[in-house]
Amino acid sequence: MTAPLQDSDGPDGAIGGPKKVTVIGAGIAGLVTAYELERLGHDVQIIEGSREVGGRIHTHRFAGAGEAGPFAELGAMRIPAGHRLTMHYIAELGLQNQVREFRTLFSDDAAYLPGPTGYLRVREAHDTLVDDFAAGLPSAHYRQDTLLFGAWLDASIRAIAPRQFYDGLHNDIGVELLDLVDHIDLTPYRCGTAHNRIDLHAFFADHPRIRSSCPLRLERFLDDVLDETSSSIVRLRDGMDALPRRLAARIRGRISLGREVVGIDVRDDAVDLRIRQGATTVTRTCDYVVCTIPFTVLRRMRLTGFDQDKLDIVHQTKYWPATKIAFHCREAFWEKDGISGGASFTGGHVRQTYYPPADGDPALGAVLLASYSIGPDADALARLGEAERNALVTRELSVMHPELRRPGMVLGVAGRAWGARRWSWGAATVRWGQEAALREAERREAARPQRGLFFAGEHCSSKPAWIEGAIESAIDAAHEIEWYEPRARGVFAAARPSRSERSA
Predict the structure, then answer these.
(1) The Amine oxidase domain covers which part of the protein (predicted)?
(2) Among 96, 211, 399, 443, which has the minimal tally of Cβ within 10 Å of its Cβ?
(3) Is 76 annotated as contributing to ligand binding?
(4) CATH architecture group of domain 63-104+320-420
């Protein structure tokens, strides 16, 4: 496992002396890379194309930056408590007192999900879900608990997967999996106030053999299902942007915003960056560079000095888009409907609807994360104009929450379509359905340096799509630069294992 770096005993705090490193991107991967390299004694500066730090962490504050009031997480919004690197940095940056529970899909019995004739409450949905699930099986000889397990697994997949992706996964919950589950006492895994749901996260944690027996496509997707429906997910009370802001404040080197890298030329003894600022483009020659921006952005640049295998992975790595739309509401009307938090599976274009806690002054209103969609569903919303997109979400969500139609209920709307944003062109790398060996091969190739050019970002990690992955890759990149021998450019990777391998 990757671990945070220890201060070096080398001269000036760096092995072989301090190096001058330029980091492209001020997201979490770029900030952690810079932070760790500085701790090791190196000179670091960061170049960021946009006007903000944080990358795909973006907390929108409806009252304006630095003002009290409700906010919406339009980027990363949750952290599995088992992500030890992320939790380490939260503690190191003095944010542990802000850690709070993140309530997720189906965690509130009063939340909703679609039924055959309308929306159902989570607490009342089990009979309908079981009947629909059993009707699709070739045989219904299973115990009722087994059917309940299959029904909630199917409902969770339907809520999390893009609609086109769900169609294939639905068929993977077949007789082979149910036959294995049918021999297990599921009583300890019943949850909810009426004990009519199944704690899938606890079940699969206790029965890894059953998980490994799932069809390949389903087994790879289970990570997301279990993480997103786990009861051990956390958030930061005052907003996820506290993490990048605290990191940026700890970095001594310059963080230059509004400077877009438009070309990279890797040479034997240096890396040349073409940097655009306004109408001016300049070339900067750098000793070492760490590229932390998504490959979707990198492949739009002019790249020279890269080998063909590296160019292939840059151009072929797949990213899922994501679109989030938040409503600033006059009041937390869902609380009067009995919903205290968590999320509903809304379906349609909206997909998921979250009810963030109203921690602040009720007079300032409350935030409803009206729509969170990924994949083709997110692209469909992103293609619409802002007014049309907001009207569509309001229209669909009003069927479940008619309170939205009340005059003056919606005070403001904020959204972000990550698949259409020029600084990301996607939300996260997703390698669903791939065998473990192929996933690892792609990760290694994504992270492999090109002489003095190194790489980090969630796309270079074993945990794509999570903050944990960005941090893991940043620590590895800092470790590689620390041990890099300038006189042996191009042969370093074969000489020394990564920190992940050395700590495994």
Answers:
(1) 28-481
(2) 96
(3) yes
(4) Alpha-Beta Complex (3.90)
